[in-house]
């Protein structure tokens, strides 16, 4: 359709495209809470609305988030973490209590528009070594029964977010898609059950990981644009790995008689830091192309009806595990404070806008003292290690935004991230007199020395940051007690 547009008619063609997008009602996004200083939920809800998000996915039934989403007009998918599956699988009464407390309660008492429950998160990930294989289906059955008992059987749908590694294709072609043989029977039970109860399948797709894991991966194929050497699958042409991956699932479903099973993309995005291919340019390019597809109502070659697509993710989370890589803390289309990382057209020319009303700690940083003679390089190394273990040094690695700092600035960066994480407590900028507080911004673009947000001044719900803050308080206590104090 686009190809036959001459320059003169581009405008009309765009209008034609706009016609395709008539069903477009808004964007969907994942809101993760694994931050040492999460943004107050009311600020986040405003951020969502200001940017045209009308669907949000939570990884847990966070009370602060669910309350703030009440009567917001935003539809909610609420997640159940894997570590709750065993208990929910063991007794339907546990599932009933969960639904009562974490779903019914918010719908009736807060007007939260909960539309679905995501049971577990990528439970079949090969790293989990079958841990959840026996509990995921009974947990699904119990939650579904509990939803029906609560009178929510129609309103709230069940789903299981899966990693794309539940299916594969030997030919490398989407049409060859099949489910991992060891999961085939279980997947059939799950899919049939979801279908019988009006639920849907959720799949997470990560073109970034394809590119990151394989230096020979064709870059344009990750960015929706391998028009130069596309993949031919019979008469179907694939110019991007996202469609090819999605259609591999669709063909696996078709082969098993579930060709009409509804599928939602639960996570897809591009990180901006912490890896050589995780940078602003790549993230902007990928995310803009993704948003454009969503706005235009584009489906895949095998399924023309566009799926719901939850972008991963809303904001950076400085408390996520870095096991998968340093990029893990940088998936946000916004920074930790809701500020904009890169310009983005959110649809129909509407520019992305930052969070409003965010309060910050004082304009000061902790840096390595210019006069600190390093008599003991061990002390310095230990101090940096300690600061990085408790702060966030994921921007310091090779190819990252702060990967080019000299040794002194490198130490400063580590000290500052710890200082900010500790709410700029004076004691957190000592490091055996190696560090001092400064009011001169030490940032060296593109490397930013951040100032933490002040969660005290805002009317946030304390429940949101309780868990991570408690851990840091524990670390702080250990520090005061001298357990790790030898180099403080
Ligand atoms: C949800 O409900 C259960 C009760 O079964 C409760 O134990 C749990 O803490 C609640 N909250 C979350 C975030 O799951
Ligand atoms: C896609 O690739 C073509 C060349 O193959 C290039 O001209 C075009 O600008 C690219 N588009 C995007 C959005 O990257
Ligand atoms: C900077 O700090 C990081 C994290 O401790 C370390 O891996 C890196 O080697 C350091 N670079 C320099 C130039 O000191
Ligand atoms: C930082 O301040 C917030 C808000 O008062 C608090 O909840 C949190 O525990 C503090 N963090 C640390 C590490 O002291």
TrEMBL record:
PROSITE patterns named in the record: GLYCOSYL_HYDROL_F17
EC number: 3.2.1.39
Enzyme class: hydrolase
Keyword DNA repair attached: no
Family matches, as Pfam families: Glyco_hydro_17, X8
Transmembrane segments: none
Signal sequence coordinates: 1-23
Protein known as: glucan endo-1,3-beta-D-glucosidase
Annotated organism of origin: Hibiscus sabdariffa (roselle)
Taxon lineage: Eukaryota, Viridiplantae, Streptophyta, Embryophyta, Tracheophyta
């Amino acid at each position: 359709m686009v190809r036959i547009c001459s320059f003169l008619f581009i405008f009309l063609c765009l209008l034609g495209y706009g016609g395709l997008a008539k069903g477009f009602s808004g964007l969907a996004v994942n809101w993760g809470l694994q931050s040492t200083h999460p943004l107050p939920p009311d600020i986040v809800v405003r951020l969502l609305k200001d940017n045209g998000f009308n669907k949000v996915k939570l990884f847990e039934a966070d009370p602060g988030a669910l309350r703030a989403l009440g009567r917001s007009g935003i539809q909610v998918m609420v997640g159940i973490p894997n570590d709750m599956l065993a208990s929910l699988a063991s007794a339907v009464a546990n599932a009933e209590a969960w639904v009562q407390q974490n779903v019914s309660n918010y719908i009736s008492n807060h007007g939260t528009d909960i539309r679905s429950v995501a049971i577990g998160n990528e439970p079949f990930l090969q790293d989990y070594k079958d841990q959840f294989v026996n509990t995921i289906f009974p947990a699904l059955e119990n939650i579904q029964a509990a939803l029906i008992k609560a009178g929510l059987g129609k309103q709230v749908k069940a789903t299981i977010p899966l990693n794309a590694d539940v299916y594969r294709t030997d030919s490398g072609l989407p049409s060859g898609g099949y489910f991992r043989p060891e999961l085939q029977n279980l997947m059939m039970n799950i899919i049939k059950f979801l279908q019988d109860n009006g639920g849907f399948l959720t799949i997470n797709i990560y073109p970034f990981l394809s590119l990151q894991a394989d230096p020979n991966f064709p870059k344009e194929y990750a960015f929706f644009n391998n028009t130069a050497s596309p993949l031919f699958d019979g008469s179907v042409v694939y110019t991007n790995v996202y469609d090819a991956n999605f259609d591999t699932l669709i063909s696996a479903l078709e082969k098993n008689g579930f060709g009409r099973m509804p599928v939602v993309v639960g996570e897809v995005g591009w990180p901006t830091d912490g890896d050589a291919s995780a940078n602003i340019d790549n993230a902007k390019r990928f995310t803009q192309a993704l948003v454009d597809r969503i706005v235009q109502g584009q489906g895949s070659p095998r399924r023309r009806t566009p799926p719901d697509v939850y972008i991963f993710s809303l904001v950076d989370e400085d408390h996520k595990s870095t096991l998968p890589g340093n990029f893990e803390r940088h998936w946000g289309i916004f920074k930790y404070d809701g500020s904009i990382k890169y310009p983005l057209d959110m649809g129909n020319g509407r520019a992305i806008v930052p969070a409003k009303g965010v309060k910050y700690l004082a304009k000061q940083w902790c840096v390595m003292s210019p006069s600190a003679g390093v008599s003991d390089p061990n002390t310095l190394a230990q101090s940096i290690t300690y600061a990085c273990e408790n702060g966030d040094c994921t921007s310091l690695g090779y190819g990252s935004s702060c990967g080019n700092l000299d040794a002194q600035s490198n130490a400063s960066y580590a000290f500052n991230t710890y200082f900010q994480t500790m709410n700029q407590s004076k004691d957190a900028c000592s490091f055996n007199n190696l560090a001092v507080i400064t009011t001169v911004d030490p940032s060296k673009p593109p490397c930013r020395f951040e100032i933490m947000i002040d969660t005290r001044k805002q009317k946030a719900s304390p429940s949101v940051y309780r868990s991570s803050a408690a851990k840091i308080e524990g670390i702080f206590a250990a520090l005061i007690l001298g357990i790790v104090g030898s180099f403080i």
